[in-house]
Amino acid sequence: MRRFIIGDVHGCFKTLKGLINQLPLDYDDYRQLVFVGDLIDRGRNSRDVLNFIRDNNITCVQGNHEAMMVDAYTRFIKYEEPLKYSDWCHNGGVNVLDEYTTNNKFDFETFSQDCLFVKYLPKVLTFQYNETKDLLVSHSGALDYIDELNMVTNKIEKSDVLDEKLNKHKQYLIENIQWERVEPLKTHDKYFNVFGHSPIYFFKQTIPKENLFSDVLINKNKGYANVDLGCVYKKPAIFNGDEGKLVAIAYPDLKVFLQKNIED
Question: pTM to 2 decimals?
């Protein structure tokens, strides 16, 4: 199946719909869509994005912004730490909280349901292809960590007892896969990794021109693509004149689709 991997949406629902309308989906089959996470925060329509993903049963990995949302919710439940003072709110989550508030009343029940939904999103996803590398989707680059993560996960699943050390090591690997802002160092024989997290405009000057395709970073030799073009950053000044766009990349043919920010 041809799949379309979509970059960091960050609550830009109108832009997302514009991008999807460009995609040559088979019979409007949303099973072809895969999201790299960071569905929420900074933009103004995170709830619409979440509802669209959930209502259409679309595949998505958890981004670091979803992880921060879950952490803020967990700390509120366990320790009554105010949501508005959380690291999540200081990183764009405050806009999401506003979406759950009507007439000064906060809809905590719906907020809880959404937190639980993003909590259980997978951290990495793999899709098998017979004639090329398997597709590996993660929020940030995973090639340097995926083999170790698979090994640790297998050990945990085969063990009859809870191994705190292994669990902590697994969490460490997952955090790297969600938060790293460096190019993968390893070349993997099995996987082609598509991820987002770091808008490439921030380090565009250091990227060889032969690895830029419609401004999207695609390193065919090492086997990865970064599909974050800073969609939520609408004003060109953010990126020295480059305008934020939402990206979809097709796999396995690596065709790029772009939609500029069209939020109100």
Answer: 0.96
